[in-house]
What we know:
This protein is of the alpha/beta class. It has 14 helices and 12 strands. β5 (169-173), α8 and β6 (201-205) form a beta-alpha-beta unit. α3 packs antiparallel against α10.
Amino acid sequence: MEQDFYRIKRLPPYVFAEVNAMKARARAAGEDIIDFGMGNPDQPTPQHIVDKLCESAQNPRAHRYSASKGIPGLRKALAGYYQRRFNVDLDVEREIVVTLGSKEGLANLAMAMTSPGDVVLVPNPSYPIHAFGFIIAGGAIRHVPASPDEAFLEAMDRAVRHSIPKPIAVILNYPSNPTARVASLDFYREVVAFCRKHEVYCLSDIAYSEIYFDGNPPPSILEVPGAKDVAIEFSSLSKTYSMPGWRIGFAAGNPRLCSALARIKSYLDYGAFTPVQVAASAALNGPQECVEEIRTMYRERRDVLIEGLAQAGWDVPSPPATMFAWAPIPSAFAHMGSVEFSKLLLQEAGVAVAPGLGFGEYGDNHVRIALVENKHRTRQALRSIKSFLARSDEFAARVAAKTGGE
Length: 406
């Protein structure tokens, strides 16, 4: 039988596939590709965390089934983190669930809370799971601006007044992937007040809350009094401690949403490998100098990248947080869109970036550049980009000739 399955039919073609295929072909041909495409931390996990994993793995009992909600020690460690970092108290039993990364938690909560046709408000552009988690679950998406400002609040108000049925939830992601925008506590206060008034849940993703550069730690929505009435927040150790492959994250906040997520997970998994959870506890409870070192590394890479792009004639805003720069496509190439521009940059400069279209239609005039190459490799990429941009007239003429001949 040839027909697609229902949920697969709701997923569009993978936007990054063409660029990824080109990248693979180039590498197979022996070309040196400098890859800023995927937000995949390149630094090793701090040694004391790895040591705790190895120590715990020596215990034969640690190889048995774990707990899908997370072992008590790790949930207590997250509660301690929230108290230290945000001055927020969490009930370890009712208000915390350990997840297999924030992505899994978001997707499974979407499955738990969404009925077919339910409307969810999602920023555009945004990280794909924010929208597609609910689409896979049978929901409908209404886009709102990605900026944490009055335009976002006005769009929420219009959606509640005009959507049928009324939205059940709104997604927040600050610091934002891909835009690197950061929200203020005042913005969160406005969102919480609105959601409480209109009985709309708020799902906040703060996976990049510890990767910030300008001295002001990004806030948590749970700092707002009464936020736990409507809000659940997802976080992750992937970027904070360079632990992406470990797949450890958390959901914290509204007890009803935490309970729904925990119940869904009890049918789907037995939780992360216990030694991984023990090591994650060591990450949260142990020395935190490594976090500042990781933050400093990304700040230095950011500065090299942004300054070098400016010297090459490509003005890109300096991100205040995250491990990404959200780069408007240079004007000479703006007509191409993000996918074709990314392919041309890869072909002619040997530099891979992520097309903004992959984060939503309103991202198509940008590309995302991940700070995942060291400063030496970044400078090498900048030299290639400068040479590429200097030939923009040549490439524009080539594209025009090709288009005219079709």
